[in-house]
Amino acid sequence: MHNKVMLITGASRGIGAATARLAASQGYAVCLNYRQQRSAAEALAAEIVAAGGQAIAVQADVADEAQVLRLFASVEQHFARLDVLVNNAGMLEPQMCLEQMDIARWQRVFATNVFGSFMCAREAVKRMSTAHGGRGGAIVNVSSIAARLGAPGEYIDYAAAKGAIDSLTIGLAKEVAAVGIRVNAVRPGVIDTEIHASGGEPARVARVSQNVPMGRGGRAEEVAAAILWLASEQASYTSGALLDVGGGR
């Protein structure tokens, strides 16, 4: 089995699902991680296999260390290698100002968006690093343009979590450059996915698009294309980059 293997966290919908479809079309074997959306993840895996690709769906909550370890063990068991990690799993909570937020909310938001990405990156490095007998590889973190804009009045906690992802990207890129691993991030702007509904405003894309220089929201496929480029050999000298995919915002 010579296919490169890509693990995508939060792959049942949105940017993760679009990334999985594009990766499979480019010859990657894909591991689709999901937390709750089992039917969606399994349907996507079946769709990829029906088209001649390789895919498995594995349940794990990336906020839980034991489940992260189980996820990576599943990848090893099924594919015996890992070439690319896409740290895509993320969540946000209903829009509100900082003064209304309790600490439990911050802990939930950071557990998934920050701790999950850090733990998955750690496990990927252990497997990819040439210092540990690995072949090298690439990590692509999914940050957000919110890290730069701050998301005032909506979700400063989510923006701060994505700011941590930016710092992880820059620091880890320097740490593992000599052991064959590139680490980059995409920072999507307002993208038409289901995440806005969990923030309490399903129509947010239409409202925010008025502030986007290109005058529209983005599509998940447009972010996926950037992720696949960063993961590819075409980006062989690119590491520590934060690539904004935000319509010029």
Would you give an account of this structure?
- The chain is an alpha/beta fold and 249 residues long.
- It has one domain (5-242): Rossmann fold.
- It is 45% helix and 15% strand.
- The protein is built from nine helices and seven strands.
- The protein has helices at residues 14-25, 38-50, 65-79, 103-128, 146-149, 156-176, 195-198, 204-208, 220-231, and strands at residues 5-8, 29-34, 54-59, 84-87, 137-142, 181-188, 242-245.
- A seven-stranded parallel beta sheet has the order 3-2-1-4-5-6-7, sandwiched between helices.
- Helix 3 (65-79) runs parallel beside helix 4 (103-128).
- The longest helix has 26 residues, at 103-128.
- The protein starts with a strand and ends with a strand.
- The model has no long low-confidence stretch (mean pLDDT 96).
